[in-house]
């Protein structure tokens, strides 16, 4: 018997997905949710997307990269009912995505909050309908469209659409405190588990202490949770953890109270707007558009954050998984993006009372500039955890160093040490300063 969550509307199914018997367990989930599918005319088909592939119909082959995977190998299945007489679009409109979580993801992701966020986004037309949550995953509606690659993000008709969609998220979604302690979804791992090296159960008080006067969770408490989970088996690990803790405290003190849009300087942010999470809606070839309509998917990292962090984090993704810093948006492009964002944001909600659109755009432009190094800290720490827990064949440790170096380069530039030591300005910093 399934249960209905009265507050958020989606059903909770007392079932789980078994990757060893994927199709059979997926069929049980689908028929529990849609019992009429069993006897109605038309076959039930399952299409398995490779790990990390998005929930879209793509009109070109997708480039798969390990860093876009979840924290461990996940299962993503599309279930369709091929009713006689329906077009492919009509079949897709009824299709369901089944996503089973990878092992170990609770260390990085609050799954309870993810499902609640998905439901709230759906209520505001910002996400596909969330149909059910089962014991180790979610079921939600399918989105038709084209998944972006990093080159697409640099196209003006796409980035203007992205700016508008981010603004809708930030303007329409409420920023509310969690109803449960931030560490309530932490889990204990048995001796010998691949998760054992992590300090996997930090207390809610320890996590929330980084921003005691702000709503929690937020992006700062997320980073704090990750730092507290880092391994400390060796002296080198302890030293790095202490250094990262000092850098987080320093960054929060310097940046967290910069005035901006939102509730107490926070908006509901996606926090993972890489190209593969941006979907361009389909339109007829003979109907060209100047600005694409886009949607965002995958809300695992969505949490309250400064708007400047969400934008700076997205701009970092223009370089793709290879961190190609030479294609990041220049000053003039960032300014045009932010102007587009503010125009859309102001059409949905009020700007701060002491700012008009121009002033607000000026402030946000400066704030994004100030935040440009923070995504490197965020994803660098994330990758350090991945290096410990992930079962994917990818060098997360090296990726962590690349991302953390972005943070250190920003610190050296802002603090003047790079210039004082007469070192060459890194490409990322040079590109960011280009007009």
Characterize the structure shown.
By secondary structure, the chain is of the alpha+beta class. Helices cover 41% and strands 12% of the residues. The longest helix is centred in the middle third of the chain and has 21 residues, at 235-255. It is globular and about 75 Å long. Mean pLDDT is 87; it is low at 51-73 and 180-195.
Features:
single chain, 435 residues, alpha+beta, seven-stranded mixed beta sheet, 15 helices, 14 strands
Order of helices and strands: EEHEEEHEHEEEEHHHHHEEEEHHHHHHH
Distance between the termini: 60 Å
How many individual helices?
A: 15
Please state roughly what percent of the residues sit in beta strands, choosing from under 5%, 5-15%, 15-25%, 25-35%, 35-45% or over 45%: 5-15%
Counted beta strands: 14
Structural class by helix and strand composition: alpha+beta
pLDDT < 50 stretches: 51-73, 180-195
- Enumerate the strands of the largest sheet in spatial order, edge to edge or round the barrel: 1-2-7-8-6-5-3
Shape: globular
């Amino acid at each position: 018997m399934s249960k209905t969550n009265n507050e958020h509307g989606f059903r909770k199914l007392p079932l789980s997905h078994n990757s060893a018997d994927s199709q059979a367990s997926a069929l049980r989930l689908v028929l529990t949710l849609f019992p009429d599918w069993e006897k109605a005319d038309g076959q039930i088909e399952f299409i398995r997307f490779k790990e990390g592939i998005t929930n879209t119909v793509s009109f070109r082959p997708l480039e798969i990269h390990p860093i876009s995977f979840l924290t461990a190998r996940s299962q993503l299945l599309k279930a369709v009912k091929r009713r006689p007489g329906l077009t492919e679009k009509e079949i897709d409109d009824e299709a369901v995505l089944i996503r089973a979580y990878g092992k170990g993801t609770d260390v990085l992701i609050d799954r309870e909050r993810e499902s609640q966020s998905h439901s709230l986004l759906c209520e505001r037309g910002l996400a596909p309908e969330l149909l059910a949550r089962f014991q180790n995953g979610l079921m939600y509606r399918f989105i038709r469209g084209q998944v972006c690659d990093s080159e697409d993000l640099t196209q003006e008709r796409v980035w203007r659409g992205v700016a508008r969609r981010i603004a809708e998220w930030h303007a329409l979604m409420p920023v509310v405190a969690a109803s449960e302690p931030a560490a309530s979804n932490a889990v204990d791992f048995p001796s010998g588990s691949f998760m054992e090296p992590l300090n996997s159960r930090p207390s809610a008080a320890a996590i929330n202490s980084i921003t005691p006067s702000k709503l929690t969770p937020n992006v700062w408490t997320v980073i704090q949770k990750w730092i507290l989970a880092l391994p400390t088996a060796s002296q080198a690990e302890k030293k790095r953890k202490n250094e990262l803790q000092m850098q987080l405290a320093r960054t929060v003190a310097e940046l967290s109270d910069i005035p901006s849009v939102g509730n107490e300087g926070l908006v509901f942010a996606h926090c993972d707007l890489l190209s593969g999470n941006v979907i361009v809606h389909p339109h007829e070839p003979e109907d060209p558009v100047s600005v694409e309509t886009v949607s965002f998917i995958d809300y695992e990292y969505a949490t309250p954050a400064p708007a400047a962090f969400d934008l700076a984090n997205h701009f970092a993704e223009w370089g793709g998984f290879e961190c190609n810093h030479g294609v990041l948006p220049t000053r003039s492009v960032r300014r045009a993006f932010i102007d587009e964002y503010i125009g859309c944001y102001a059409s949905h909600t009020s700007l701060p009372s002491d700012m008009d659109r121009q002033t607000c755009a000026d402030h946000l432009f400066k704030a994004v500039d100030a935040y440009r190094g923070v995504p490197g800290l965020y994803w660098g720490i994330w990758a350090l955890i991945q290096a410990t827990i992930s079962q994917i064949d990818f060098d997360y440790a090296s990726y962590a160093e690349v991302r953390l170096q972005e943070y250190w380069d920003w610190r050296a530039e802002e603090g003047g040490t790079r210039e004082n030591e007469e070192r060459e300005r890194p490409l990322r910093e040079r590109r960011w300063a280009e007009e």
